[in-house]
């Protein structure tokens, strides 16, 4: 089994003070969607945040809520904190701004992680997504050394790890929808996503006018 880590910190710039993890899509928040998906393959769930209180009110006690050991280091600091406290040797890390995360993708990356790699990172449309990656717990030591140098960008993180790439074709061959990498950074992103979701739901509704002719 895996440990699942949701990074729900950050300053949520472009969101007018709204926490992206608590945005709603359909009848569920991003966080509810993520926890539900992670429970399919994770026996430990962790939220890393710089503001625990909003999450304490909305999650079960089985979900651990922690803060960064070294504040001010962005996503890299959150990954470090989650890996340091995770109980399992393999950890699935996602950003709280990703509403369509995929347990199937995480399990595929775990199964295909090559020897000598300490992380598996998905690549979709020629872009890598470290915030939907699989990491070995031992990565924590490399990340701590990285933070000691003051280099805390995602690019620096990738340079510090021996990681293997899980390509888009691999997910497609296994019939995994690559929308799991969708990210919401701004209110404009969120509003567009809501409109698209509502349009899809309307198309999926049965045409009751046809059935009424049988009454």
From TrEMBL:
MobA-like NTP transferase domain residues: 4-159
Keywords: Cytoplasm, GTP-binding, Magnesium, Metal-binding, Molybdenum cofactor biosynthesis, Nucleotide-binding, Nucleotidyltransferase, Transferase
Alphabetical list of Gene3D superfamilies matching this protein: Spore Coat Polysaccharide Biosynthesis Protein SpsA, Chain A
Any matching Pfam family: NTP_transf_3
GO molecular function terms noted in the UniProt entry: nucleotidyltransferase activity
InterPro entries membership: MobA-like_NTP_Trfase (IPR025877), Molybde_CF_guanTrfase (IPR013482), Nucleotide-diphossugar_trans (IPR029044)
CDD domains: MobA (cd02503)
Protein's name according to its UniProt entry: Molybdenum cofactor guanylyltransferase
Source species of the chain: Paenibacillus mendelii
Lineage, uppermost ranks: Bacteria, Bacillati, Bacillota, Bacilli, Bacillales
């Amino acid at each position: 089994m895996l440990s699942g880590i949701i990074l729900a910190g950050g300053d949520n710039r472009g969101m007018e003070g709204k926490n992206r993890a608590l945005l709603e899509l359909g009848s569920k928040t991003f966080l509810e969607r993520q926890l539900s998906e992670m429970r399919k393959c994770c026996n430990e769930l962790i939220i890393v945040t710089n503001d625990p209180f909003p999450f304490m009110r909305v999650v079960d006690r089985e979900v651990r809520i922690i803060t960064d050991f070294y504040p001010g280091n962005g996503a890299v600091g959150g990954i470090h904190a989650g890996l340091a406290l995770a109980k399992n040797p393999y950890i699935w890390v996602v950003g709280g701004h990703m509403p369509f995360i995929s347990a199937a993708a995480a399990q595929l990356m775990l199964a295909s992680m090559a020897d000598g790699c300490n992380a598996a990172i998905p690549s979709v449309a020629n872009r890598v997504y470290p915030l939907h990656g699989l990491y070995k717990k031992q990565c924590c030591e490399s990340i701590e050394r990285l933070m000691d140098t003051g280099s805390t960008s995602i690019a620096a993180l990738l340079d510090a790890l021996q990681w293997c790439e899980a390509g888009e074709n691999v997910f497609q061959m296994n019939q995994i929808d690559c929308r799991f990498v969708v990210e919401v950074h701004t209110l404009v992103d969120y509003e567009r996503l809501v409109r698209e979701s509502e349009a899809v739901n309307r198309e999926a509704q049965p045409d009751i006018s046809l059935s009424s002719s049988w009454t």
